[in-house]
Amino acid sequence: MASRFVIPLWKSVCSAVATLKPAMCQPMSSNLQYVRYASKKASATPRNRIGRTKRKHRGIKAHDGTFVHKGDILATQFGLRFYPGENVVMDDKWTLKAAFDGIVVISTETLNPYPDSPLYLPVQKGAVLQKKFFHIIPTPLHGKFKLVSEV
């Protein structure tokens, strides 16, 4: 419980007001008054509440047959759910992005992993792994400008 002794302001105010109203400068009953302040206990907030995590909205962002520009996100994922194909790059968070302007093609292909992959041994034993691959078919570039030679 916090308590304080408060000195009334009549002593400092009296000097200025004394010339106008001398009756206001008289002390009431005592010089000190006991003041009690309201207080509340501090409580900690829980940091990890179960079931309150934000959604990440991962998944396919550009579907089969849509036109995308260079740098557009094709799919966001955690781990390798979708694999990059032709003209598709993958960043450090496994996000697939278009390397060129073009049309998205999603295909299901048989996976042929490298020897250092953990999937290499099951494939060598006869397992067939089918994965989705994202490809970009780039739009052909048309020459719109002609170079005019100086004559």
Structure explained in plain terms:
The protein is mainly β and 151 residues long. The protein is built from 2 helices and 10 strands; from the N terminus they run βαββββββββαβ. A 4-stranded antiparallel beta sheet has the order 3-5-8-7, with no helix packed on it. β7 and β8 form a beta hairpin. The longest helix is centred in the first third of the chain and has 8 residues, at 10-17. The chain is flat.
Overview in brief:
The chain is mostly beta strands and 151 residues long. The protein has two helices and ten strands.
Fill in the keyword field for this structure.
4-stranded antiparallel beta sheet; structural constituent of ribosome; 39S ribosomal protein L27, mitochondrial-like; 151 residues; Ribosomal_bL27; single chain; 10 strands; mainly beta
Number of helices: 2
Q: What is the residue-mean pLDDT, rounded to a whole number?
A: 82
Radius of gyration: 38 Å
Strand order of the largest sheet: 3-5-8-7
Uncertain ranges: none
Secondary-structure element order, as H and E?
EHEEEEEEEEHE
Tell me the strand percentage band.
25-35%
Q: Measure the end-to-end span.
A: 97 Å
Global outline: flat
Percent helix, as a range, is under 10%
Tell me about the biggest sheet? Answer: 4 strands, antiparallel
Count the beta strands. Answer: 10
Q: Give the structural class.
A: mainly beta
